[in-house]
Design brief:
The structure holds 2 protein chains of 2 kinds. Chain A has 3 domains: 162 residues, no CATH class; 222 residues, Hypothetical protein af1432 (Orthogonal Bundle); 60 residues, no CATH class. Helix content of chain A is 47%, strand content 10%. Chain A is built from 18 helices and 10 strands. The longest helix of chain A is centred in the first third of the chain and has 24 residues. In chain B, the strands form 2 sheets. Chain B has a 5-stranded antiparallel β-sheet. Chain B has a two-stranded antiparallel sheet with strand order 6-7. Among the domains of chain B are: 130 residues, no CATH class; 127 residues, no CATH class. Chain B is α+β, with helices and mostly antiparallel strands. Classes of the chains: A alpha+beta, B alpha+beta. The interface between A and B is large, with 79 and 67 residues.
Chain lengths: 475, 646
C-alpha cells in the first residue's frame, strides 16, 4: 500500500468524518439492517483500515475540542463544520473523541452508531459506553476522554495532554464558523425530521438565522467568505447555507426589519427541503439524468411546499419560495401551474442566489464557474430572472466578490476586500508579486482600484478560482 | 493587436457615377419597402389580421433572401434617405417609409441592424415597442429607456451624432465647432476627437489618405471631417462608448486601422464605402477578438482538482476576463434599475403567489387542522395593517378577509373564487402592480381550471363544491367543468351522479346534459354510474328511472337519451322517443302528474317517432287513466305538437 502524503491523509480523515456523520443520520432514519446503514458501516471500516495501512499507524484518533475536530494536533475545518451531529452525542457522554484500531470491521461501527443514535438506551458516561461496546464484542473502537482548552492549527502535538490539563485559552472556530456549524446542524436535523415524518423545528432554524444576521452585522466579510466555502457535502446542506447567506446579504439592502429578514433567512434556508423526499440515489447521482429522473427531481419543489405547508408554524413565505424557486419569469420553469402567477420578490431573490451558488460551487461532477462567467450566463438566460433584481445582485455582490482572488493587470495577485461604486474596480489586498512570490504580511498593501497609486490604471485581469477547500483550518 | 483581414467591399456606385434618377437603387430596396409597410400596418391593424400576417411573411421572405449572402443588414437613416450597403431609398417617395423614418428619428434610432435570427415575433415586438416609445417621449428620456433590450435579429443603434456647426474663430484662425450629439457619450467622443492632439493627428492622417484616394474640393474638407467624426460616433459599438476610459484608446486604434486600410488600397471615395469600411473594421475589432487557445473541457464525473491558474496575460493586452467584464457592464447598463429599492422588502407582497400555491395544493377541507393552517397561511396576505394603504382599500380588504374566513368555515370552496374576483383584491393587485404583479381579476378563468384540477371525485366535499360552483357560474362555464370531469371519468364512475340527480336544482339539469353531451366517451361512464347506483333496484330499467319521483323531470329527457345508447353508440333519438312515449301512455308505475310532465319532452326530441307519439296522445283514440286527466294529456300533447309546426 502506498504511503499517504499529508494532503491525502487529511482528505481521507475529512471524508471519514463526513461518512461517520452520514452514518449517524442514516441510523437515525432507518433501521440497523437497512442497506444504506450497512453501506455506511462497511465504508467506515474500509476507510479506517485504509488510513492505518497508508500511514503505518495502529489506529486513527479523532478528538473534539471546542467544537473542532482535531487529528494529531491539527484542527480540521471541513470536518468540523459538517460534524455537529457527531459532537452532540459525544458531548452528552462527556467524551472527547474516538479511537479506531486497525482491523475494525463493519459490525463494530454498527454497534457504535446504535450507541450514538439510540438516546433511550445510551449509557450515561463514557466509561459505561466503552464497557457497553466491549461487552458487545466491539473491541476496536473506544471513546476517548475530554481534552480541555483549545488547539490551533499550529499547536504542536506535544501540548495536547489528556483530560484534566488546561491548555491555552481560545477557540478554534471563529464565530462565523460556529454559525455555519449551527446551520449545518439545523439542516441535518430538519432532514431527519422530514424523513421520519416528524414536525420541523422551524423555531430553532429561525434562531440560527438570527445568528447569521448578527454575524452579517458584526463581521460581514467573514461570513460572506463562508458563502464561498466550497465544501460539497452529501446532503447539499452547504448549498442551502450559502444560498441563505447570499439571500440575507442581498435582502439587507432592501429592508432593515429584523422579523422580515429572519423570515427571509428561514425561507431561503428551507428552499430545498423537498429534496429530503427524493430518492438518495437520484439526489446524488453523478450520471446524466434521464428525462424521467429529471421529472422526479423537479418534484422537490412540490414536496418542499407540501412539507412546509403541513407545519403548524408554517410561514407563507417559506412555502412560496420552496414551491416557486425554480419557476421563471416567463412561466417556463417548474412546477407548472395552471394559474400564470408572477413570482414574489423574495422568490426572485432566492432564485438568483440559488442559481448563482450552484454555478459557482464546486461539485464532484463539475468545476466551479467563476463569478464573471456565472453573471454572463445568468444575464443571457432570458426570461429566467427579474432583470433589475439580477442587476442589483451583481452590483452588490460585486463583479469580483469579496474574498475572491484575482490577478491584476500588473501581474500581481490580490484578494478582493470590499466593493466600491465601480463594480469592476474593487478594493483589493495585493498578496504576491508579479513573479508569484507571496508577500510577507508586513508588505501586504491595500489598493483601491478606482484610485491606484502613481495614477496608473490597474484593472483585474483574471479571476483565480480557488482550489477545493482544504481540510485544515486556514492559517 | 493584429488587424484581421477586411473582406472586399461589395461593388457599389463608383466615383462620379450618378444615382438613379429617383435617387434610389440597389438590391435591398425590396425588403426596405416591405419592412416599412409592415411596421406601419401593425400600427393600424392587430397582429392577427390577415393582411399583417401576409405582409410579415413577405417581409421575412425578403430578409431571408438578403441574408443568403450576408450575415447582417443595416438600415441606416441618412438625411432624407435610407441606406443599406449600396442601396439608397429616398424617403419622400414612400409614405410608409417616411412614416417609419420619422418615428425612428424621434426615438433616437440612427440605424437598425438585422441578422438572420430575425423572427416574426421579434418584428412584432419591435413594432409594439416603437409605438409605445412614440407615445412616451419626453425631454429627458434616454435611448436606453426607449430601447432597453435588443430583439431577436434586430438591434436599434443609437443616433449619437446630429452634426456640427461653426461657432466662431478658434485658435490659429480655424473655425471652432460645436458638436450636436444626441447622447452624452457621443458628446464626449466628439469633444475628445476635437481636442486630443494625438487623435487630431490620426484624423488628419485619415483625411490625407482619403484625399489622396478621392480628392475633394478644399471647401468640402471641414464638412468631410465632420462627416467622418459623425460616422465614427454613430458606428462605434455601444460597449466602447459606455466606457469613457477606454473610448480614447479605441478611437485611436480604430482611426489607425481605417487609415491603414484605405492607404492599403481600399477605395474610400464616397460615404457609403467609408461607412462600410468603418463598420467592418469596428466589428472585426470589437466583436471578433483574436483567437485564443481552446479552453480545456470541464471535468466530467471526476473529483474536483485544484484549478490551474490562467497564465498571466501580457501586460497591456486585454484578457478574456476583461472582455467578459466589459460585456457584463454593458449588459447591466441596458437593464433598468430597481424601482423603490430602499423599501422593496418592507412589505413582502406575494399575495398572488400564495394564492397560486394554495390552489396547487388544494384544500382537503375535511382536515380541520389543515384548514386552520391555511387560514393562517392566507389571511395574513389580506391583512390590512400595512402602512400606506388607503382607508377604503383597507376596508375592502378587511371585508374580503371576513368573507374568506366565512368560506373556509362553511367549506365553500367556490367562495374562494369570489374573492379572487373581489374588487378589493383588484385594488390590491393594482397596488402590487408596482412590483409587476398582474391584475388578479383576469386570472379567474385559469383559476377555475386549477380548481377543477385539484378536485377529487372521491370526496363528498369536492362534489358539493363542484355543484355549488356550477350552479353559480352558469351553463357556459359548466361545459368546461363537466367536460373536464367527463374526461376524467372518475366523477361519474363512483356513483356520485346519483347525488347530482337527486338535487332539486334546475341548474344541475344542464350540468347533467353537458355531462352527457360533452364527450361521447362520457356516456358509458354515466350509464355505468347509473347502473351502479345504490338505488339500482328502482332504477334498473329506464321506465323505473323515469318513474322515480325523486328524479327531477328535467332529467327524464337526458336519461332516456342516455338509455337509448347501445355500447357507446350515439344516442338513438327515435328509441328515446319510444321510451318516453311508452312511459307517458303506461299507467302502472308512474303517477299521472309525472306522466303529464313528461309529455312536453316529446316535443323537445323533434323526431318522427316523438311526433307520432304526440299525435297518438292528442287523439281521443287511446284510453288513458281517467277522463278528467285525459283532456289535460291531450292538451299537453297538442301544445308539444305545435313545436313541430313552427
Amino acid at each position: 500500500m502506498c504511503r499517504l502524503d499529508e494532503r491525502e491523509r487529511i482528505e481521507g480523515i475529512t471524508a471519514f468524518v463526513d461518512e461517520l456523520v452520514v452514518g449517524i443520520i442514516n441510523s437515525g432514519i432507518y433501521w440497523t439492517q437497512h442497506p444504506r446503514v450497512e453501506t455506511s458501516v462497511r465504508e467506515l471500516a474500509r476507510m479506517v483500515n485504509e488510513h492505518c495501512d497508508g500511514t503505518d499507524e495502529p489506529s486513527l484518533s479523532l478528538t473534539i475540542i471546542d467544537r473542532c475536530i482535531v487529528h494529531q494536533g491539527r484542527a480540521l475545518l471541513g470536518a468540523s463544520l459538517s460534524a455537529p451531529k457527531l459532537m452532540k452525542p459525544l458531548g452528552e457522554l462527556k467524551a472527547g473523541g474516538f479511537e479506531f484500531d486497525h482491523g475494525v470491521d463493519a459490525s463494530d461501527f454498527t454497534l457504535l452508531l446504535q450507541l450514538l443514535t439510540d438516546r433511550r438506551r445510551r449509557p450515561e458516561s463514557r466509561e459505561d459506553a466503552n464497557a457497553a461496546l466491549a461487552a458487545s464484542g466491539c473491541g476496536k473502537i473506544r471513546l476517548l476522554g475530554r481534552m480541555v482548552g483549545a488547539v490551533g492549527p499550529t499547536t504542536p502535538v506535544a501540548t495536547i495532554t489528556p483530560e484534566g490539563d488546561r491548555l491555552r485559552a481560545g477557540t478554534t472556530l471563529d464565530v462565523p464558523q460556529q454559525v455555519y456549524q449551527g446551520l449545518v446542524d439545523s439542516l441535518q436535523t430538519t432532514m431527519m425530521q422530514v424523513c421520519c415524518g416528524d414536525s420541523l423545528e422551524l423555531g430553532a432554524v429561525g434562531s440560527m438565522v438570527q445568528e447569521v444576521l448578527t454575524t452579517l452585522d458584526d463581521d460581514p466579510k467573514a461570513i460572506l467568505n463562508l458563502s464561498r466555502y466550497e465544501n460539497y457535502d452529501a446532503y447539499t446542506f452547504g448549498h442551502s447555507i450559502r444560498v441563505c447567506i447570499l439571500a440575507l446579504n442581498f435582502a439587507r439592502n432592501f429592508t432593515s426589519d429584523e422579523e422580515t429578514l429572519e423570515r427571509i433567512g428561514v425561507a431561503s434556508l428551507m428552499h430545498d427541503v423537498g429534496k429530503a423526499k427524493l430518492p438518495f440515489e437520484l439526489l446524488h447521482s453523478t450520471e446524466v439524468l434521464s428525462a424521467e429522473e429529471r421529472t422526479e427531481m423537479q418534484k422537490h419543489t412540490i414536496h418542499g411546499g407540501e412539507i412546509l405547508l403541513e407545519q403548524t408554524e408554517c410561514d407563507p413565505l417559506a412555502v412560496t419560495v420552496a414551491f416557486g424557486h425554480h419557476r421563471t419569469e416567463d412561466g417556463r420553469g417548474y412546477p407548472r401551474t395552471t394559474v400564470p402567477l408572477p413570482l414574489s420578490t423574495l422568490t426572485r431573490i432566492v432564485k438568483i442566489c440559488d442559481v448563482y451558488e450552484a454555478l459557482t460551487a464546486v461539485r464532484p461532477y463539475k468545476q466551479a464557474m467563476s463569478p464573471t462567467r456565472s453573471y454572463k450566463l445568468m444575464l443571457s438566460m432570458d426570461g429566467h430572472f427579474h432583470r433589475p433584481l439580477l442587476r442589483r445582485f451583481i452590483e452588490l455582490n460585486g463583479i469580483f466578490p469579496n474574498g475572491s482572488r484575482v490577478r491584476l493587470s500588473t501581474g500581481e495577485t490580490a484578494r478582493v476586500e470590499s466593493q466600491t461604486d465601480a463594480p469592476a474596480l474593487p478594493i483589493v489586498t495585493v498578496e504576491s508579486t508579479p513573479d508569484g512570490d507571496a508577500l510577507d504580511e508586513a508588505d501586504l498593501r491595500t489598493v483601491d482600484l478606482r484610485r491606484p497609486p502613481d495614477d496608473r490604471s490597474i484593472t483585474v485581469a483574471d479571476e483565480l478560482l480557488a482550489a477545493p477547500a482544504a481540510a485544515t483550518a486556514s492559517a | 493587436m493584429a488587424v484581421t483581414e477586411i473582406p472586399p467591399i461589395p461593388a457599389g456606385p463608383r466615383p462620379g457615377e450618378p444615382l438613379d434618377a429617383d435617387g434610389e437603387g440597389g438590391p435591398h430596396a425590396a425588403w426596405i419597402g416591405l419592412f416599412a409597410e409592415f411596421v406601419k400596418l401593425t400600427a393600424l391593424l392587430p397582429p392577427s389580421n390577415e393582411r399583417v400576417r401576409e405582409t410579415a411573411e413577405r417581409c421575412l421572405e425578403a430578409f431571408r433572401a438578403a441574408f443568403e449572402e450576408r450575415e447582417e443588414l443595416e438600415f441606416t437613416l441618412d438625411k432624407g434617405r435610407v441606406r443599406c450597403e449600396e442601396t439608397t431609398v429616398v424617403v419622400d417617395y414612400r409614405p410608409s417609409l417616411r412614416w417609419l423614418v420619422e418615428r425612428l428619428d424621434r426615438t433616437g434610432v440612427a440605424c437598425l441592424r438585422f441578422s438572420p435570427a430575425l423572427t416574426r415575433a421579434s418584428l412584432l415586438e419591435f413594432c409594439a415597442r416603437l409605438q409605445e416609445n412614440c407615445g412616451n417621449l419626453r425631454a429627458s428620456v434616454l435611448f436606453s429607456d426607449l430601447w432597453p433590450t435588443e430583439f431577436a435579429g434586430l438591434r436599434p443603434i443609437e443616433r449619437r451624432f446630429d452634426g456640427a456647426f461653426p461657432v466662431g474663430a478658434g485658435a490659429g484662425g480655424t473655425v471652432a465647432t460645436r458638436w450636436k450629439t444626441a447622447s452624452r457619450q457621443g458628446q464626449m467622443l466628439a469633444e475628445m476627437l476635437d481636442s486630443d492632439e494625438s487623435l487630431q493627428g490620426r484624423l488628419d492622417e485619415l483625411q490625407r489618405v482619403l484625399e489622396s484616394s478621392a480628392p475633394a474640393a478644399p471647401s468640402d474638407e471641414p464638412r468631410r471631417k465632420v462627416d467622418l467624426i459623425g460616422r465614427l460616433i454613430n458606428l462605434l459599438p455601444a460597449e466602447a462608448m459606455a466606457d469613457p476610459s477606454r473610448m480614447r484608446e479605441m478611437a485611436d486604434e480604430l482611426l489607425s486601422r481605417i487609415t491603414d486600410a484605405i492607404a492599403g488600397g481600399v477605395p474610400a471615395s464616397d460615404t457609403a464605402q467609408v461607412d462600410h469600411l468603418l463598420h467592418r473594421v469596428s466589428r472585426k475589432y470589437f466583436f471578433r477578438p483574436a483567437e485564443t487557445a481552446p479552453r480545456p473541457k470541464p471535468l466530467a464525473f471526476a473529483p474536483p482538482a485544484e484549478a490551474a491558474a490562467p497564465p498571466p496575460a501580457e501586460i497591456g493586452t486585454r484578457t478574456e476576463t476583461e472582455e467578459r467584464v466589459d460585456e457584463i457592464l454593458a449588459e447591466l447598463d441596458g437593464i433598468a434599475p430597481l424601482a423603490k429599492e430602499r423599501h422593496l422588502l418592507d412589505r413582502v407582497t406575494d399575495e398572488l403567489e400564495r394564492l397560486g400555491v394554495l390552489l396547487h395544493f388544494f384544500v382537503r377541507l375535511e382536515d380541520e387542522e389543515l384548514v386552520e393552517r391555511l387560514r393562517g397561511f392566507l389571511v395574513p396576505s389580506l391583512a390590512p395593517a400595512i402602512p400606506g394603504r388607503s382607508a377604503l382599500l383597507q376596508a375592502h380588504i378587511a371585508q374580503a378577509r371576513d368573507r374568506f374566513e366565512a368560506a373556509l368555515e362553511r367549506r365553500q370552496l367556490h367562495r374562494l373564487f369570489d374573492l379572487l374576483c373581489d374588487p378589493s383584491l383588484k385594488s390590491l393587485a393594482e397596488e402590487s402592480r408596482l412590483f409587476g404583479v398582474e391584475n388578479v381579476v383576469e386570472v379567474f378563468p385559469a383559476t377555475f381550471h386549477s380548481f377543477l384540477d385539484s378536485l377529487d371525485a372521491e370526496r363528498e366535499v369536492d362534489l358539493d363544491a363542484l355543484v355549488e360552483v356550477c350552479a353559480r357560474i352558469g351553463p357556459a362555464r359548466m361545459r368546461d367543468a363537466s367536460s373536464h370531469l367527463a374526461l376524467e371519468g372518475g366523477f361519474s364512475r363512483h356513483g356520485r351522479t346519483a347525488k347530482v340527480l337527486r338535487r332539486p336544482r334546475p341548474e344541475l339539469v344542464s350540468l347533467y346534459h353537458v355531462l352527457l353531451r360533452a364527450e361521447p366517451a362520457a356516456a358509458p361512464a354515466v350509464a355505468e354510474a347509473l347502473r351502479a347506483l345504490d338505488l339500482d333496484a328502482r332504477l334498473a330499467g329506464p321506465l323505473r328511472i323515469l318513474s322515480d319521483e325523486e328524479v327531477p323531470v328535467e332529467y327524464l329527457l337526458a336519461i332516456t337519451t342516455e338509455r337509448s345508447r347501445q355500447e357507446g353508440d350515439e344516442p338513438r333519438v327515435e328509441a328515446a322517443a319510444g321510451l318516453l312515449a311508452e312511459f307517458v301512455t303506461r299507467t302502472d308505475d308512474a303517477s299521472a302528474a309525472r306522466r303529464l310532465e313528461a309529455i312536453p319532452l316529446l316535443g323537445v326530441l323533434r323526431c318522427e317517432a316523438a311526433r307520432k307519439a304526440l299525435e297518438e296522445i292528442s287523439s281521443t283514440r287511446r284510453r288513458l287513466l281517467a277522463p278528467s286527466e285525459g283532456e289535460a294529456y291531450r292538451e299537453a300533447a297538442r301544445r308539444a305538437l305545435s313545436r313541430y309546426e313552427t
